[in-house]
Amino acid sequence: MTRHVVKRLPVDTGISGWEAISQRRFPATVLDRDITADWLIIGGGFAGLSAARRLLQHRPEDKIVVLDARELAKGPAGRNSGFMIDVPHNLSSGEYSVADEASTKAEIVQNRLAISFAAGVAAEFGLPSETFDPSGKVNAAASDRGLALNDNYRRSLEKIGEDHRVLDADEMRRMTGTTYYRGGLYTPGAVMIQPADYIRGLARGLHERVSIFEHSPVLELSREGRHWKARSNRGSVSAPKVILGVNGHIESFGHFRGRLMHIFTYASMTSAFSQNEFGTDVTGVDRWALLPADPMGATVRKVTVNGRSRIVIRTRFTYDPGLRVSDRRVAGIAAEQRRSFDARFPQMESLPLEFSWAGALCLSRNHVPAFGEVEEGLYSACCENGLGTVKSTLAGMMAADLAAGVGSPQLDQYRNQPEPSRLPPEPFAWLGVNSVIRFQELRAGREG
Ligand SMILES: Cc1cc2nc3c(=O)[nH]c(=O)nc-3n(C[C@H](O)[C@H](O)[C@H](O)COP(=O)(O)OP(=O)(O)OC[C@H]3O[C@@H](n4cnc5c(N)ncnc54)[C@H](O)[C@@H]3O)c2cc1C
């Protein structure tokens, strides 16, 4: 009998501003009895909830159960910067995407498949434009190096015939209010989400037809006859087929150990301010979304709801194989984010950063997902390589297709990827990965 005992549960350090300002519209239910189902999905992030919706589309009569260790949207799915990116950046130089031209084109098709699935969620469940905004995004450059990277990116976009527009310093200032940026590159296909609202909106749309249990960690998963049995604190679920949407925590279920890199990234959100509080034009138009021209720089977004705006800044990456980081680390990085924010908006030094938090990503060395049927009836939709709003949505869709036996050329292509490659043993991996990250962050300079 196979039995996986889960020894490590998710820990989310700091309060996500997105979650704090999002309103929950349905009650959280804890699993408190033993139940059976046709399908069990473990993890209620992008992967898990997308798998649930996809299964519902394939098998509307089946009983589907989702279990999450935490409350939905309190984990990474509700604490990211909300860029659903279609065009990987930087296409040629490998700064964001590592692929050649043909694979880049294939990746764009896959990303768009996931984005259109998410657009279906927004339409079906009535998500407003503050939650799901197909506005596109800008790669912002604040230095010579950033401008050169954007130019490189522009050339690769041209080569594959992707729509884009170059923005000069003046246009950047009109959009963001700050003179910090010297140029930008706009691509129209990205969607900007309020991540906590999106996850809650998706779960709310599903919850009449899918049983979602929160605060219900899976502590043990065992194979009993033709079923898998997942035990939680106060109950259990038995199902013939299980999809794991737990990202890096798949290691706790006995798979892909020594092959996944647990990376944390960090963000802070200001308190709310009104447009005239700091003088008009200080922060530009109501909503904008900037990715750094150098991927190791700062992601910065402004959102406005009912005339009240907030700015969110995300910086830094750290490799933490223990899958948890301290409050002290979050506070230290929040102080750096304060400096990055003040450099961009010096007139707003008195505006507090109200929320600061960290969140886990999962990367593989060869940039592939941890995907497939890992044991009989047990499917993995994990390891999103840092862009899970899109990649985990896709992994969830593909895992549901695979498990339900619904074939497609997309699934064939998605399955046709190698396994995540092995990492060097610790402490070499720790030393190596953290040194490379830190070197690249320092090189990013003013972009950070
Ligand atoms: C600050 C920050 C900014 C980011 N910005 C972006 C961005 O702009 N665009 C982008 O695409 N991505 C971004 N990301 C990454 C994105 O958040 C993740 O890629 C995404 O959340 C991964 O989705 P997922 O469903 O695979 O995993 P997760 O969101 O991590 O969900 C996994 C779920 O599994 C649950 N779980 C784990 N173990 C168990 C267990 N034993 N029992 C039950 N449940 C369990 C967890 O509680 C969790 O809810 C960012 C991340 C951070 C932290």
From TrEMBL:
Q: Which residues does the UniProt record annotate as the domain FAD dependent oxidoreductase?
A: 38-402
Q: Spell out the InterPro entries in the cross-references.
A: FAD-dep_OxRdtase (IPR006076), FAD/NAD-bd_sf (IPR036188)
- Keyword Oxidoreductase applies: yes
Pfam families (UniProt xref): DAO
Recite the UniProt keywords alphabetically.
Oxidoreductase
Is DNA-binding included in the keywords of this UniProt record?
no
Q: Which PANTHER family match?
A: FAD DEPENDENT OXIDOREDUCTASE DOMAIN-CONTAINING PROTEIN, SARCOSINE DEHYDROGENASE-RELATED
- Identify this protein by name: Glycine/D-amino acid oxidase-like deaminating enzyme
Q: Which organism is it from?
A: Rhizobium viscosum
